[in-house]
Amino acid sequence: MKKLLIAMFLLAWTTSIGTISFASSDCKNVDFDNGNVCVNIEKVSWKTFKLVTDDNNTSESLRCGVLLADKPYKDVNCDGGTFTVNDLDTQLIKIFIKQWSEVPSDWDDKPSSDSKWLFPQWNYDFDAEEWSDWSSSSSSSSSNGDISDFTITLADSTPSAGDEVKLTLKAIDSSDDTLSDYDGSNAKITIAYRSSSSSSWTTTTSSTYFAIDDNTPNFSNGVASTYITFKKDYDYRITVTDNDDSSVYTQKTIYTDDSSSSSSDGDISDFTITLADSTPSAGDEVKLTLKAIDSSDDTLSDYDGSNAKITIAYRSSSSSSWTTTTSSTYFAIDDNTPNFSNGVASTYITFKKDYDYRITVTDNDDSSVYTQKTIYTDDSSSSSSDGFTSSEISTVKNLYNTWDSYISSMESDSYRLRNNSTRQNMSDDLKAEMKKIINDSSDKLYDNMDEFQTGFNKRYQYTIQNK
Q1: What is the mean pLDDT of residues 95-123?
Q2: 287: domain range?
């Protein structure tokens, strides 16, 4: 009965999500001689997205692929195939779509060649999750006027001390349109800090307090980005100025998520392991961040990491067992004994195969202290977790990937659900547990599919009863 309920729910859910996805006028229509295909992009996780198509009267099978400016071409499934991006900003995306050998009938300046490199090009804002016309002079969210201000955006609005985050600047005019011809030659970033015991700001260039890749980053089409690390549990103020016009400046205050202080000088109990991209593609270099914590989950600010070590194991799609390795054939890591500062350390790692990987962090002085995290490359055909089969993990992933869209749909149809905090908390908790199952987290609540289905059914039935 449990499996029947979840299967029925998934079927209804899939149908509902399909309707939601293509009710939007923002999808891109590709016309063929015998019909058309509506193309859209949906977010799966932080830097992972999927291609979704809805065909109308087309009788032939579709072939799809994606090409980004800084990524190699990738064939993807036309119905939910995933791909990753390096930057969550507006960028050119080329979508290859064919019906067998037939190319779309409405390609502008369609060449005689049907090469996969010659397919439609659009702009997509991966941060706002919408199609964008910023590079088109006819669509008007850009201008060639005078600069009035900047916008300042961080990939993480409340970063932890020691975390490297992407900082994006946009030059805008008095109508808030992006200045596409602004070259940024006069733009500069300055940083000030304020500790919890102080009410005044101190401007600094000291690497003790922060690190920035470039405080005069290059602008392209009115947009620039760089990476910044706030090193203390302080408040920080980012100021962006234009040296040619003293009236042009923008400020943004950043609160590190530990600035209200959850640090200690006690004994280490565990580590947290975080990847900048939780489902990286094989070959992508990603930032790996470790945090030493005590039994209360507070950061150990005095932990120096001299005894900490990272080890890596892999598992192919045809294997159920893990193989520990140091071979560069399978991965590359900048430092497997990275330096800790204020209880936090970071390094960069590249997973080279489309395998599952397990990261283990240990403290050689205490054998009871170790943490493991399983990473699934986004092309990996293997998906397993202790207590769950590959098929069961696939079911959980399907639920997780469509959860937000389905909940939004239900809330839009029901005032009672929108204002039911108990239902909202139950939904958030269940989604968090799904993520733990997918990542094979050691602290996951449900140890097998039967337990998960029981928890799922309880929340589902509560939602239906209160709709």
Answers
A1: 54
A2: 266-376
